[in-house]
Amino acid sequence: MRVSNCSVSFWQEAVDLLSDICGPAHVLTDTDILYSYGQDETLGLNFGFDILVKPGTAEEVAAIVKTCNELRIPITPRGGGSGVTGGALPIQGGVVVSLERLNKIIRIDEINGYVVAESGVITAELCEQVEQHGLYFPVQPSSKAYSFIGGNVAENAGSIHSCRYGTTAQYVLNLEVVLPTGAIIWTGANVPKNATGLNLTPLFVGSEGVLGIITKVVYRLIRRPEHEVTLLAGFETMEAACNAVLAIKQASISPAAVELIGQEALHLTAAYLNRTLPLVKEGIKAHLLIGLQEVTESALLHAMEKTGSVLEKYTTEPILAGTTALEKEQLWKLRFSIGAALSGKGKTYRDIDISIPLSLLYQYITKVEEIAASYHLAVACFGHALDGNLHTMIMLEQHMGPQAEAKAAEAVKNIYAYAIANGGVISGEHGIGMLQKEFMEVQFSEDHLALSRSIKRLLDPRDILNPGKIF
Ligand SMILES: Cc1cc2nc3c(=O)[nH]c(=O)nc-3n(C[C@H](O)[C@H](O)[C@H](O)COP(=O)(O)OP(=O)(O)OC[C@H]3O[C@@H](n4cnc5c(N)ncnc54)[C@H](O)[C@@H]3O)c2cc1C
Asked: Is residue 302 part of a domain?
């Protein structure tokens, strides 16, 4: 049975049952409210659905899932709705479970170095709270002001700091998960070493809400290196910027961030911010924004000298250093405004989040530009250069219409084919969701996909949890 076939009385019964679980105030059917939960940050898409539920505890989540399972109602788990591949879009209608009321930080354990929090805690809130205890959670996606920690785990989110600190996966010690049957499990333990039985934690990290609903997260925490500086270097060619990234990798420097910003992205961002930005000038084709973090001042000075001497081989432009909080903030603002600059002024864009072997960084960018140009499309390039995880945005404008969108789709296919043939993956951090699903067959063998699908069937035989996503 699928939702569209169901009668009004069926839905009224579902509303009554869910209201008994969460209280009527947390079960919503008002069309205007549902509209804002029918979308995320993906290409202006919006899907209608039937009931929005906002549980307040894991037990309520479990009871909701059990009820929907019995009634065979599709469920879409939703975090902060900042996803860009449509993972939280309720494409088959039914129930959206918003985790926004599971927003408590339960414990920050300073001695053992972990935090236990409900999955609806906003990322920035968690980061601030742990820092007040002298601890640090380094994987802070640029969407941290509104993404939830459960959403980050579900997407295995990355950040500008992933080149040094890794992605979300490297910090998850343990998860409380509601399975599609309504059972509640803990996947691991709150200890850094654990060789006890099958390790179920990684199964749920990056599972995009198709295997279970994460209700609590235990993150390992580290100490924050206190001394930091931000460097900005401009390059006359993209090739020089990419070669500088490779040279940084070869040198024994471990930067906390190395972000590449291509000319197109930089100029659009400068216009968007409407202010004179350093090094935004003719002849500069690419920038590197580099974050250094060290535990002592002398170590930081050493890292700065080493980085400076590497960069000077590839650029004659002065290298700017932001040392005060304000200077650093202004430099990073450049990077963090790119998304808004690209999507502002009625522009829409298609986000490509490929991860490729670092040695192919420049070839990859050149190939993307070549493919985009062959379809008469503009492309803006920026991203996590030292990870090989670039965001190349195919720029579309709303007036361009469906023909341009079709061309962009063709261009994306060719770009993905190139990346996969050269050892890359179609997503470094944004996931598959609904948008990238069609490319899974290019990425994986039929046997690989069959195994993934059988894991899904084992956990969710009725296919009620986030159906139609990933595979
Ligand atoms: C401006 C901007 C900047 C961004 N920067 C980054 C970045 O730096 N790094 C990065 O990795 N991504 C980035 N993203 C993408 C996005 O923010 C991340 O994917 C983020 O982790 C999604 O979290 P969310 O809470 O918003 O999840 P949602 O969008 O609500 O959901 C994402 C997926 O997770 C599932 N899900 C959500 N919560 C749960 C749960 N509790 N249990 C099970 N499944 C769940 C949903 O069903 C969906 O499939 C950015 C997006 C924007 C718009």
From this structure: yes
Q: What local confidence, expressed as pLDDT, does residue 401 receive?
A: 82
Coil, strand, or helix at residue 186?
A: strand
Q: How many helices (H) and strands (E) does the chain have?
A: 16, 16
163 and 264 together in one domain: no
Which residue has a Cα nearest atom 20 of ligand 1? 152
Could you tell me the two tokens for 182?
């309504």
307: phi then psi, degrees, rounded to nearest 5? -65, -45
In a domain, 83, yes or no: no
Q: Are residues 114 and 213 in the same domain?
A: yes
Give the torsion sign (CA, 334, 340, 346, 350). Answer: positive
Cα 468 from Cα 87, distance rounded (Å) = 9
Position 135, amino acid: L
DSSP 181: T
Is the beta carbon of 354 within 6 A of some atom in ligand 1?
no
Judge if 175 and 119 occupy the same domain: yes
Among 339, 368, 393, which residue terminates a domain? 339
Q: Is 123 in the pocket of ligand 1 (CB under 6 A)?
A: no
pLDDT tens-digit readout, 303-334: 999 999 999 999 999 999 999 999 999 999 98
Q: Give me the pLDDT at residue 279, please.
A: 65
* Positions of the chain with pLDDT lower than 50, given as ranges: 1-2
The ligand 1 atom nearest the CA atom of 83:
29
Residues 269 and 287 placed together within one structural domain of the fold: yes
Mutate to test the pocket of ligand 1, among 64, 78, 184, 187 (most ligand atoms within 8 A of CB): 78
436 lines ligand 1 (CB under 6 A): no
- For ligand 1, whether the C-beta of 467 sits within 6 Å is no
What distance in Å separates the CA atoms of residue 145 and residue 344, rounded to the nearest whole number?
19
For residue 174, what are the β-bridge partners? Answer: 218
pLDDT tens-digit readout, 149-206: 999 999 999 999 999 999 999 999 999 999 999 999 999 999 999 999 999 999 999 9
Q: What is the pLDDT of residue 278?
A: 67
Asked whether 100 lines ligand 1 (CB < 6 A), one says no
Q: How many domains does the chain have?
A: 3
Best probe residue, ligand 1, of 92, 96, 155 (max atoms within 8 Å of C-beta): 155
